[in-house]
């Protein structure tokens, strides 16, 4: 695919995997922006289309970073992109987007199904001006009874099974702490887009949140099919392995993942309880699972006697699988993470922020970093001046309400 003709004022993405790929980003909130953030990190030129005067919904979801006018939510998903204000619902705005699509490699959108078609910007329309365009829609659901339902992360997590298996055994279903429905769809979108680019042909890709999240059930689905029972909700406990759970320590919680009988023997030696390995109730994994509560009673006071750091040092020294439960402050102070090169250290309005980059490491290229999130409409004129007159620029930036789309 020939490199696009770019009007970008952004720094070149030298030596990046997707250098020369131009993406028109008609997404908002989380699933779509997460996908295009990954594409940006890998070097694509991403032009973000935003509603005039208001922009992406996440621009108004605090907290704000200093006095920058940019929220942490928006910055976490839109670094290094170019922002243009464009009323796609207007005739002039639709024509402007069509002009941009002529020289683009990818267009991605996550409006309700049918919205882009209503504006004359669906795949069938845009393939007329660019037959090589890879057009990706992130939707809530594929064709079926749910197709037109509003798709929010909470909704697809509830329908998709993940909430039912998250939480304590005697507690209510819980929503996982990260929006896995949105992130799942964003990752599948990137897989679909890069696969289509590899095949070097234009096509339409529909990426659903619900069906994508169901595909993540994997072993949970397999166990359900075999047992004909719902997969159990057990907190951090694994239904088929023991000990495989968190234990409270002197200053926090520590996760232990003993996945084999050989590892169990090493674990017993490391905690100075070789007698447990000889106990017929705990000799092999099936026995430990059957006597899980008794085993937990034996282990809880042992873990309570040491700190997380002490346990982590011991587990690492002995090559055992276990780690402290870090909070979201702890993890960004983690020395391994700092040294891995996967943080984009930016300073925005005097605030230092280590945003996570795409963590894929390439031997012959690198991911992109060091680029701040754009102000609303920051690149409208430089991007559109090549395709629109000054009067037309004013017309396409007129306000519109697409919040419900």
From TrEMBL:
Keywords: Transferase. The keyword Translocase does not apply. The keyword Cell membrane does not apply. One of its GO terms (molecular function) is CoA-transferase activity. InterPro entries: CoA-transferase_III_domain, CoA-Trfase_fam_III, CoA-Trfase_III_dom3_sf, CoA-Trfase_III_dom_1_sf. It comes from the Archaea. Coiled coil: none annotated. This is Bile acid-inducible L-carnitine dehydratase protein F. It comes from Natrialba chahannaoensis JCM 10990. The lineage of its organism: Archaea, Methanobacteriati, Methanobacteriota, Stenosarchaea group, Halobacteria.
């Amino acid at each position: 695919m020939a490199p696009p003709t770019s009007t970008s004022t952004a720094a070149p993405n030298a030596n990046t995997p997707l250098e020369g790929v131009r993406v028109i980003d008609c997404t908002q909130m989380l699933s779509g922006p997460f996908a295009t953030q990954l594409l940006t990190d890998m070097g694509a030129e991403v032009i973000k289309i935003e509603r005039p005067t208001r922009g992406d919904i996440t621009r108004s979801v605090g907290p704000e970073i200093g006095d920058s006018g940019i929220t942490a939510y928006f910055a976490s998903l839109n670094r290094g992109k170019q922002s243009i204000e464009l009323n796609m619902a207007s005739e002039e705005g639709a024509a402007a987007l069509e002009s941009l699509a002529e020289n683009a490699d990818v267009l991605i959108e996550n409006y309700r199904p049918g919205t882009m078609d209503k504006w004359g910007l669906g795949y069938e329309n845009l393939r007329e001006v660019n037959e090589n365009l890879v057009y990706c829609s992130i939707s809530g659901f594929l064709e079926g009874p749910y197709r037109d339902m509003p798709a929010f992360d909470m909704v697809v997590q509830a329908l998709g099974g993940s909430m039912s298996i998250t939480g304590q055994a005697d507690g209510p279903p819980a929503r996982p702490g990260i929006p896995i429905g949105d992130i799942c769809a964003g990752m599948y979108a990137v897989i679909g887009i890069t696969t289509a680019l590899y095949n070097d042909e234009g096509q339409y890709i529909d990426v659903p949140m619900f069906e994508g999240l169901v595909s993540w059930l994997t072993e949970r689905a397999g166990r359900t099919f075999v047992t004909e029972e719902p997969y159990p909700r057990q907190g951090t406990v694994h239904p088929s392995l023991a000990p495989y759970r968190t234990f409270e320590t002197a200053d926090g919680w520590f996760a232990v993942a003993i996945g084999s009988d050989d590892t169990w023997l090493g674990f017993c030696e490391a905690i100075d309880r070789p007698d447990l390995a000889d106990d017929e109730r705990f000799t092999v994994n099936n026995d430990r699972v059957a006597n899980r509560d008794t085993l937990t009673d034996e282990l809880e006071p042992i873990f309570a006697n040491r700190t997380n750091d002490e346990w982590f040092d011991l587990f690492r020294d002995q090559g055992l699988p276990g780690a402290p439960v870090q909070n979201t402050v702890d993890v960004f102070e983690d020395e391994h993470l700092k040294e891995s090169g996967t943080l984009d250290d930016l300073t925005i309005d005097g605030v230092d922020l280590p945003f996570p980059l795409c963590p894929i490491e390439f031997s012959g290229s690198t991911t992109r970093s060091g680029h701040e999130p754009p102000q609303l409409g920051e690149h409208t004129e430089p991007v559109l001046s090549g395709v629109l007159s000054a009067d037309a620029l004013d017309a396409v930036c007129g306000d519109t309400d697409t919040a419900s789309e």
